[in-house]
Each structure stands twice: as C-alpha cells, then as structure tokens.
C-alpha cells in the first residue's frame, strides 16, 4: 500500500489516511513507553506482535457480536480500520488489584476483586490521564449517561471474552484498558471498541508462576518485552509453537 497522508501519531501507533472515505490505516510502531513516556525504548518486532495480537482479539470480539473498528490486516504492521470519533476516555476493567489501584487503595498486587471493576480515565497525557468519576464525564459532556451505560456493558463483554480466552492458555487477565469510539449513521450513533487490544494495554500473568507477560516487563525491567509478547502470541496460536521471536520485517509500501 502506498504511503498516505499522516493523520495522527501517538506513542505506539500512527494513523494514516485510508484508501476509502471513512477509513484509516493504523501502523504499529516498535516504540515502548512507560510512566507517561518518561521511559522510552525501541523493541524490535513489538509492532508486528501487537498488530497480529490486536487483529486476533478484534476478530474474536466481532465473532461474538462485539462491534469494533477493525476491518482487516493489511501487512505485518498495518491494519485497515473504520474512522471513529474517539470518546476521550480510557475504559479500564480490573479483575485483580495491580498497578495504580494497588497504590491508590493499599491493596496487595494480585488481590482478587469481589467483581470486575470498571474505571474511567480522562485521556490527556499532559495531565497523566487522571482517574475521573461518572459525574465528571457527564458534567463535561465527554459522554452521556446512556453512553456510559453502553460503554460499561461493552467493556464487561470484552472482559468475559478476554478472561476466558486467556484462562484457556494458562494466563490470568489481571486488568486491561480499551478505548471506545462513535460511528455515526445519519443521526444514529453506534459505539465500537477502537484503538488496540494487546499486551501493551493488558496485564497478563502466567497462572502457575505469576510471570508477567505484559508491558510491566518493560516498566519494571523484568526481562525481554519481545519474549513476553511472543509467549502470549505463541500460546494463543497467533505464532507457530516453535517461534522464539519476531524478526523486524521489511515494510510493504
């Protein structure tokens, strides 16, 4: 695919103009960031793995009736996606205490929560993506009450799907975050899962050993991030069982 006009570049992805109106091309970079981009590195092959894994999860969600922005994978690093109006919120689902929840509430990491807890953070890097309440969301018109109800329902369906999928390959889904976008058909609005679902946006622990298989490996200097992501992909059957790493591919233009 010929390189097209750049629309937006984030920490891990680039959006380009799509081949048809209402579409974008989403390119996955090898960049790894943590602590609001205070820690940075380039992990060879990370973008390839996240592209393949996000494709796998998005197709699985579509198959159970959860709408997403995903249309098709174009090559090793790029996907064709629907253009959506992103709601400026990160939707976080927590099954176990970890990360900021553990620090905020004084809970030991790994504590099982009484039920999945859905949290919202306002998407603004300059503010550190602060946790916000539903009252803030409605008062500042980021979303309506109906939007919030639909977003929670979508997030919990994603959680059911991802938890079962991961449990089947010996991985505990500790928590994850998604973004949700609006698609408009005249005056009718539809909410869809957008952005990506990958080990960048999930906490994944081996059920038996507790080994971390997500971006905490990079955050906490626990080993090779590429190896951790490759292990997730191998268990899910996204990569051949004898694959040890993903080499850096040649870009297809």
Q: Which fold name corresponds to the CATH topology of the domain at 85-206?
A: D-amino Acid Aminotransferase, Chain A, domain 1
Number of helices: 6
Distance between the termini: 5 Å
Q: Class of the domain at 85-206 in CATH?
A: Alpha Beta
Helix and strand succession? Answer: EEEEEHEEEEHEEHHEEEHH
Instruction: Report the sheet-strand fraction.
Output: 25-35%
Description:
By secondary structure, the chain is α+β, with helices and mostly antiparallel strands. The chain has a domain at 85-206: ATP-grasp fold, B domain (D-amino Acid Aminotransferase, Chain A, domain 1, 2-Layer Sandwich), CATH 3.30.470. The chain is built from 6 helices and 14 strands.
Task: Give a quick summary of the entry.
With 253 residues, the chain is of the alpha+beta class. Helices cover 27% and strands 32% of the residues.
Task: Indicate the topology.
Blueprint: E1 6-9, E2 13-17, E3 23-28, E4 31-34, E5 39-42, H1 46-63, E6 70-73, E7 78-82, E8 85-86, E9 89-96, H2 99-105, E10 112-122, E11 131-132, H3 134-139, H4 145-167, E12 171-185, E13 188-194, E14 202-206, H5 216-219, H6 225-235
Keywords:
single chain, 14 strands, 253 residues, D-amino Acid Aminotransferase, Chain A, domain 1, 6 helices, five-stranded antiparallel sheet, globular, disordered C terminus, alpha+beta, seven-stranded antiparallel sheet
